[in-house]
Amino acid sequence: MKLVPSICPYCGTGCGMLLIVKDEKVVGVEPWERHPINEGKLCLKGWSAHQFVHHPGRLTSPLIRKNGELVEVSWDEALDFTADKLKGIVAEHGADAVGFLASAKCTNEENYVLQKFCRYLGSPNVDHCARL
Amino acid sequence: MKKFIAVKNAKLRSEAGGGAIQELARAMLASGLVDRVLTFAKGLDEEDLLPAFIDKADDVGNMALNAYAPYSLSRFVRDYGEGKLAVIGRTCDIRALLELRKRNGLNEADLLTVGIACSETPDRQNCLRCEYRVPFMADLSCVLAEDGTLVEATGDKGAQALGTGSFEELSPSKEIFDAEAARQVALAEQAAAFELQHASPAERLAYWFGQFDKCIKCFGCRNSCPLCYCKDCVLEADRGLVRGGEIAPARLFHLTRLAHVADSCLNCGQCEAACPMGIPISKLYHMLNKELSAVFGFTPGINADLPPLFGFDEKEKSDDSTLFGGR
Fold this sequence. Notes:
Chain A is an alpha+beta fold. Chain A has helices at residues 44-47, 75-93, 108-121; strands at residues 2-7, 16-22, 25-31, 63-66, 69-72, 100-102, 126-128. Chain A has 2 domains: 2-47, ADC-like domains (N-terminal domain of TfIIb), CATH 2.20.25; 63-131, no CATH class. In chain A, the strands form 3 sheets. Chain A has a 3-stranded antiparallel β-sheet, with no helix packed on it. Chain A has a two-stranded antiparallel sheet with strand order 4-5. In chain A, strands 6-7 form a two-stranded parallel ribbon. The radius of gyration of chain A is 19 Å and the shape is flat. Chain A starts with a strand and ends with a strand. In chain A, 17% of the residues are buried. Chain B has 2 domains: 2-174; 194-318, no CATH class. Helix content of chain B is 35%, strand content 14%. An 8-stranded mixed β-sheet of chain B has the order 3-2-4-5-6-7-1-8, sandwiched between helices. Classes of the chains: A alpha+beta, B alpha/beta. At the A-B interface, strand 1, strand 2, strand 3 and helix 1 of A face strand 3, helix 2 and helix 8 of B.
């Protein structure tokens, strides 16, 4: 058993948590006293954050709908597919036709990169679930 | 018999307690007396103290002694302890292990306990009220001083562990921690903190309901309590008390927990440390536990005595006035 420092993935607060790792599997969560945001406190979601990591219902690869059915594909195929579609829509309808939804479950840096990408394409449509 | 010792190698004496605890951990691992040592170790920086299992004798330099961190080592023994394990912890950790063992709440780990007295009081309300600062119930009871460690083996197990290390016996350079003076301070702190005991029942209820109403039901107090060891917690949904998809009402949540742990509360303060809403839970539990102790003559975690509600004696079984009387 070892404790691995991490950040809670559930909301935009960004509480520090320690993942309890046993035999290379995440089996529990401890609040992280040293983290300046939450100083050793967690909410119910934080205390339960380990439960989805190895959950059988969790998606472990990208899915593309082919002939009406969702099919597991590689990341390369999924990214190529998405890039082609994005390029096609922007070329045909202009950048206003696409929008991007960032997430509170990502880091600041990841969200920054997403909005930068959105502006690069020329779209003003960027939004965020933490605004709810 | 108490001995004042430091590690034999003079170069390793700069640590608190004259390096005796590090030497003990190293020697227990190197000699194969234990497979692993559970203790506090440095995390990402000097002030980041985390519970850690150490299994290599070379890693004992990472240990952090005599510092407060709000994690209960006993919970890690309860949930992840196995094999031959030594726990080097504070008095509240050792007391929790003793109490868990009595209640069949510990897994099969072959335990050796080394307690380190809290000679400096952590700046926490529950620690200020703590009257059990010296771990006299541990296999090895230690008090750290600047240049050495006052150690007492309370049985063969502790003596055997001590025998694995290379120690030098010294004479203490100055007076070591005065446990009785610290106990008197703690009792005075309790008297001040438990002022509420003198209020009317209605006032006490109003005060605590006011506190409970702040609760956001994070379950942090239950999760961090070393004595909350039920596999199926009655406070979770679909366990007979709370319907599926619902959460327990705040007041009943706390009163139910209180009824469950009042006789076993050690005043370790982990519940309060985990509470995001600042509810002074450990004060309530400590206060109630002291009241129950006076009634039943039982204090958890200090000796092998069984809890008052552990079973029925013959007289109670046949007494009509008790719940199961005459059946």
